[in-house]
Amino acid sequence: MTSSRLPQPGRADSGATPDPAAALRLAQHRAEEMIRADRASRDLGIVVEEVGPGRSRLRMEVTAAMINGYGICHGGYLFTLADSAFAYACNTYGEKVLAFGADIVFLSPAQLGDELAAVAVERVLDGRNGIYDVTLTQRSTGRVIAEFRGRSRIAGPVAPHRRLAPMAPE
C-alpha cells in the first residue's frame, strides 16, 4: 500500500503525528490490522489499494451476486464499499473509530463486471468527531457512481498525538 496518488485531507493539520513518514506508517499498520479482521469486505472482494492519514482508496468488482431485480448493482453493496473506504480512512490515526452516521447519493448505476473505486478523504477532524467524503467511480471511465458522507466518532481513548482543539478554518 502506498499513498502518493491519494487526495490529501482537507486541512493542513489532520491531527496525525507531526512526522509524515511516521503518520503514513501508522496508517498502513492500522489498515493491515483491519484487513486481517475485516471478513465482510474480504468476502465481497473489496481490496484496500492505498491508505494514508485520513484517506484511503479501495476497489471492488461488481459480481452477479450483487445484481438486483433491475439488472444493476444493488445500492447496499455500493454503500458497503463506500462505508469500508470511510472506515479505513478514519481509522488511520491509531484510535478505534466508528461510524456515527452516513449518507449516500446514488448518481449512476453500476453494472455487472464494473470495477469500482472508492476514494475516501477526511474533510473535518474536530476532537472526537470527523467528517469524511467518499467518491465511488467506475474505474475505466471515471464515471461517478455515488457520493457518500460519513460522520465518525472516536469510541475509546484518544491517541496522545491527537489534537483535540478544533482547527480554525483555512
Overview of the structural elements:
With 170 residues, the chain is an alpha+beta fold. The chain has one domain (20-154): Hotdog Thioesterase (Thiol Ester Dehydrase, Chain A, Roll), CATH 3.10.129.10. Helix content is 23%, strand content 33%. The chain is built from three helices and six strands, in the order H-H-E-E-H-E-E-E-E. It has a six-stranded antiparallel sheet with strand order 1-2-4-5-6-3. The protein is elongated.
Summarize the structure.
The chain has helices at residues 20-37, 39-43, 75-90, and strands at residues 47-52, 55-61, 97-106, 115-126, 129-138, 144-154.
Search tags:
disordered C terminus, Thiol Ester Dehydrase, Chain A, 33% strand, alpha+beta, 3 helices
- The CATH class is identified as Alpha Beta
SSE sequence, one letter per element: HHEEHEEEE
Distance between the termini: 30 Å
Low-confidence stretches: 10-17, 163-170
**Rg value:** 16 Å
As a percent range, the share of helical residues equals 10-25%
The CATH architecture is Roll
**Structure class:** alpha+beta
Shape: elongated
Main sheet specs: 6 strands, antiparallel
Mean pLDDT: 85
Q: Strand order across the biggest sheet?
A: 1-2-4-5-6-3
